[in-house]
Write a structure and sequence with these properties.
392 residues; mainly alpha; Growth Hormone, Chain: A; 79% helix; 0% strand
Amino acid sequence: MLVMFLIGTAEVVAGPMMAAMGAHFGVPAAQIAWLPASYALVYASLAPLLGPLSDRFGRKPLLVPGLIGFSAAAVLIALAPSFSSAVAAGIFGGICAAAVQPNALSIINDNVEEEAQPAATGRVFMGLTLSFVIMPVVSAVLAARVDWRAAYLLVGAAALVAAILTWRMPVRRAAVQNMGFWTTFREALTIYSVRRRLAASFLWLGLSIGVTTVLAEVLRRRFHMQTEAIGVMVGAFGLVTVIGNSLIGRTERLAGSRSRVVVGGVIATLIGCLVVGVLPPFSLPVAALAGVVWALGYGIAGPVHHSGLGQISRHVRGTITALNASLLNLGIVVVASCAGRFFDALGVEAVVGMAVLGMVSGLGLLLTIRPAPDLRASQPGALAAPPRFSRR
């Protein structure tokens, strides 16, 4: 949970401090956006390349150094003598994040019994969601009352604590895969349903998360809300997502299968995005209710989808998880880029509408996936059934 909190923090910590950071570095405040942008782009690019290394050498050998490097990157941003050196430190942080998040999620599948994995993944993802709710407030307060650099130093200290705790944490060693680098990719992508599930990750989760990153601007333009009210709405969205993370086990029991939970989550996301960002504006209470449906659907189904990907294969689990993380960040970059380019030219509805079309395509891909135990069993890196670990 702490690791996921740190991953999210790196994306939002600079937001409330852009004016103070711009004044410190002598650049326009808007240019500070290059810090989280460079972090996300490098993360999305390198995560797939680092995934096979964790399958070959284990999770902790990459996770612990990655957290130490993540800590160093935050400190380097705080101490950077120029904005260009701060961006370089942000790029280094993205490299380290690419080694951190996929391994942290893979450890869940390596060490938790199959029945409990979705709920455990949901609890871990609470850290990511809470970072979006808590860290902007913390960084704003520190920038106003202490110094903007204090926020980055705090992140660096927390990452160092996470590295120590991870190093001391007893974990089962992953099933080490001794295949070559590119062979590992080929192995992962030839397992039944992996490509469709990964494509659905980009089209549903990646694009929907991308819409949440511009949700504040969507609310401002469509509902003419003031800054404080927008802050309350976006914060409430994050808190409802956390509630959804905590309801995974109960929802799975009620639905009867994980595939139903995921399909229901996609539909809830579609409804929320349509009402909030595409259809002619409803009253604000109706939009808020749609946002609750959206946040609950995402909060419940997102971790279940992540957990299902991690269960497909024991031997190339890190590679699959890394590919998934990269595609989610790619979705964020796509929506954020389109928002910056087309919000003024085409309108909010056109950009969110294109994202919704992508989500519909993702839902279609998920609906085409059928159990194929014989095919899965024939794959050397796949599991005919989800793993059940014995003491041996």
